[in-house]
């Protein structure tokens, strides 16, 4: 955060100062929406959610070192009061970025955004000061919070951009105009809000490349035809990545190394170099190539990109997070979120990791799948059976029951169980797990199966 006085911030966002003894007090630290994450000299952003109202924690934030609270009403401590807190934090982020000069990298896609962002950040920060989206703070609130962590030393600003509906990326790129835009893929995540199919989702995701300047770069996945269709929507220079030989950045000799880790030869215009990721699953190759494409556009060579990828580690929880228990049970927590694409990738990665060991799948609903939801859950059930999972626990009513029925109907020997809720799933899994098993836990975040995964990991 560049240092700013409270009265300057008030002018930028159109706020009224309340209970502020010194309008010239400086905000020098990052902003936070969680009072437990406030840093001395920072700004606390009070938002009202479905279950928690940040205004109730204003005093605690000030006690923790916040200079003031950005709020929608007076809170009895120093506050900048605005009508719309989300709009105001966006205006502040846009103002701050206009006074900085990092290379702004926007990335979007249906799946893989956070893993790719984490890989890219670890490649770039070896070379210069880098600020990247924390966790999955990729929306109208999270993106400004990321921007406000940047300062005069920041050379690379990596912004994960989510699109829950059309127009979201237009708004986000208006706050932080990108010089490089990376599009990973077009899948079925958020199809319920984005339209009826992939073309509608591509329409929304393509707003990112439309925002790029003529001297910028559009990094497009050559393996995804819907992403490739976005080429006509940008005036920026296009760089392709993927498996095809025409891709500027591509993978050759793709293989699975020890413990199901993806390995390949990275090929870029500057040369070739070996990559062996510390992440499981062949689908990670595409994520790594996406990060490599951005780094290539920024001028890094193949060898230094490969060095960064080889040294990279998983940073975000709940994404193929592996815990080895003392009894030999391996828990794979992939319960941050779920779509058909990420569910398929996760199931295959876990089977590759397990080898001859018995595999147990604890699966809940995949949200926002619209009218095709039941059919897509049934497809996942058949895949569980076809891959040879030993046990399936389907959690919840509705679509998970279709998943269970499809797995059982496949008659491939999978033992199918159903659980009413997360607590029931934990009870069942605890009873069924045997030493040496590999258990995979995944569902959309609102299901709460992360609680089950973390409990299983410490049993």
From TrEMBL:
Residue ranges of domain Mur ligase N-terminal catalytic in the record: 33-76
Protein encoded by which gene: murF
Annotated compartments: Cytoplasm
Gene Ontology terms describing biological process: cell division; cell wall organization; peptidoglycan biosynthetic process; regulation of cell shape
InterPro entries to which the protein is assigned, alphabetical: Mur-like_cat_sf (IPR036565), Mur_ligase_C (IPR004101), Mur_ligase_C_dom_sf (IPR036615), Mur_ligase_cen (IPR013221), Mur_ligase_N (IPR000713), MurCDEF_CellWall_CoF430Synth (IPR051046), MurE/MurF_N (IPR035911), UDP-N-AcMur_synth (IPR005863)
Protein name: UDP-N-acetylmuramoyl-tripeptide--D-alanyl-D-alanine ligase
Family: Belongs to the MurCDEF family. MurF subfamily.
Function text: Involved in cell wall formation. Catalyzes the final step in the synthesis of UDP-N-acetylmuramoyl-pentapeptide, the precursor of murein.
Positions of the Mur ligase central domain: 108-295
Catalyzed reaction equations: D-alanyl-D-alanine + UDP-N-acetyl-alpha-D-muramoyl-L-alanyl-gamma-D-glutamyl-meso-2,6-diaminopimelate + ATP = UDP-N-acetyl-alpha-D-muramoyl-L-alanyl-gamma-D-glutamyl-meso-2,6-diaminopimeloyl-D-alanyl-D-alanine + ADP + phosphate + H(+)
Extent of the signal sequence: none
Recorded superkingdom: Bacteria
GO cellular component: cytoplasm
Domain called Mur ligase C-terminal: residue spans: 318-444
Binding sites annotated in the UniProt record for ATP: 109-115
């Amino acid at each position: 955060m560049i240092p700013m006085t409270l009265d300057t911030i008030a002018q930028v966002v159109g706020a009224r100062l309340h209970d502020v003894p010194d309008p010239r007090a400086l905000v020098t630290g990052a902003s936070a929406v969680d009072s437990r994450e406030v840093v001395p000299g920072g700004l606390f952003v009070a938002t009202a959610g479905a279950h928690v109202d940040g205004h109730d924690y204003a005093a605690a934030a000030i006690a923790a070192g916040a200079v003031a609270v950005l709020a929608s009403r007076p809170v009895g401590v120093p506050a900048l009061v605005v009508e719309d807190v989300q709009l105001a934090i966006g205006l502040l982020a846009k103002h701050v970025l206009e006074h900085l000069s990092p290379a702004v990298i926007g990335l979007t896609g249906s799946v893989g955004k956070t893993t790719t962002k984490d890989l890219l950040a670890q490649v770039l920060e070896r070379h210069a000061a880098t600020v990247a989206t924390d966790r999955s703070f990729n929306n109208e609130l999270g993106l400004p919070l990321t921007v406000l962590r940047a300062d005069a030393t920041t050379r690379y600003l990596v912004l994960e951009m989510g699109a829950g509906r059309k127009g979201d990326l237009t708004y986000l790129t208006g706050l932080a105009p990108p010089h490089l835009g990376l599009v990973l893929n077009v899948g079925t995540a958020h199809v319920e809000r984005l339209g009826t199919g992939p073309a509608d989702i591509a329409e929304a995701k393509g707003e990112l490349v439309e925002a790029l300047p003529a001297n910028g770069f559009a990094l497009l996945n050559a393996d995804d035809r819907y992403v490739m269709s976005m080429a006509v929507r940008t005036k920026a220079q296009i760089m392709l990545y993927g498996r095809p030989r025409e891709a500027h950045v591509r993978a050759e000799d793709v293989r699975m190394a020890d413990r199901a880790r993806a390995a390949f030869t990275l090929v870029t215009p500057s040369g070739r170099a070996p990559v062996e990721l510390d992440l499981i699953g062949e689908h990670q190759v595409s994520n790594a190539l996406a990060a490599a494409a951005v780094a290539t556009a920024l001028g890094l060579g193949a060898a230094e990109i490969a060095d960064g990828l080889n040294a990279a580690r998983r940073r975000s929880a709940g994404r193929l997070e592996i815990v080895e228990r003392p009894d030999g049970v391996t828990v794979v927590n992939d319960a941050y979120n779920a779509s058909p694409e990420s569910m398929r990738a996760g199931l295959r990665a876990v089977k590759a990791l397990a080898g001859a060991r018995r595999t147990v799948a604890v699966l809940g609903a995949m949200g926002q799948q619209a009218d095709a939801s039941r059919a897509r859950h049934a497809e996942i059930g058949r895949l569980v059976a076809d891959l040879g999972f030993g046990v399936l626990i389907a959690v919840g009513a509705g679509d998970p029951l279709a998943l269970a029925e499809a797995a059982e109907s496949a008659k491939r020997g999978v033992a199918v169980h159903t659980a009413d809720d997360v607590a029931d799933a934990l009870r069942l899994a605890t009873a069924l797990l045997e030493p040496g098993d590999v258990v995979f836990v995944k569902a959309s975040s609102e299901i709460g199966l992360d609680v089950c995964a973390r409990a299983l990991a410490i049993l």
